[in-house]
Write a structure and sequence with these properties.
Elements: E1 7-11, E2 16-18, H1 23-26, H2 31-50, E3 54-59, E4 62-64, H3 66-72, E5 76-79, E6 84-86, H4 100-105, H5 110-119, E7 123-124
Parallel strand pairs: 1-3, 2-4, 3-5, 4-6
Antiparallel strand pairs: 6-7
GO molecular function, one term: catalytic activity
Organism: Flexistipes sinusarabici
Family: Belongs to the enoyl-CoA hydratase/isomerase family.
Length: about 120
């Protein structure tokens, strides 16, 4: 008999949890490609957000851009003191298309969320 999975633990490797997409590549996307990329990421993180298993993000190191969107889709997030968070694309006018602005805004205080997305500067856990 098979035992169903009840918990997913997700962690990174090599000093990063997840660092998102390559911003230089994203800047080259046509409108059509950017929209498709955004829709795909939004669908993926929406699925993660709604699976029946408990999803735990174990963050140790960099959690940037789409990595933050990824972590915000998890049920629980645990970060070490080495962890650094940022949405660096906001400095270039790139706003996450993966639903992160909606999810992250529900997890952070308003003033921190606004500052985070306006500056794109990294902050610690």
């Amino acid at each position: 008999s098979e035992t169903p999975v009840k918990v997913l633990r997700i962690s990174g490797y090599g000093g990063s949890f997840a660092v998102g997409a390559n911003i230089l590549t994203m800047l080259k996307y046509s409108g059509y490609t950017a929209k498709g990329f955004s829709m795909l990421g939004n669908k993926l993180f929406g699925l993660l957000d709604n699976i029946p298993q408990v999803v735990i993000a174990e963050i140790d190191g960099f959690c940037m851009g789409g990595g933050m969107d990824f972590a915000s889709s998890c049920d629980f997030r645990f970060a070490t003191t080495r962890s650094r968070f940022a949405h660096p694309g906001s400095k270039l006018g790139i706003i996450t298309g993966f639903g992160g602005t909606q999810r992250i805004s529900r997890l952070m205080k308003s003033r921190h969320f606004i500052e985070h997305f306006i500056t794109g500067d990294p902050y610690s856990a």
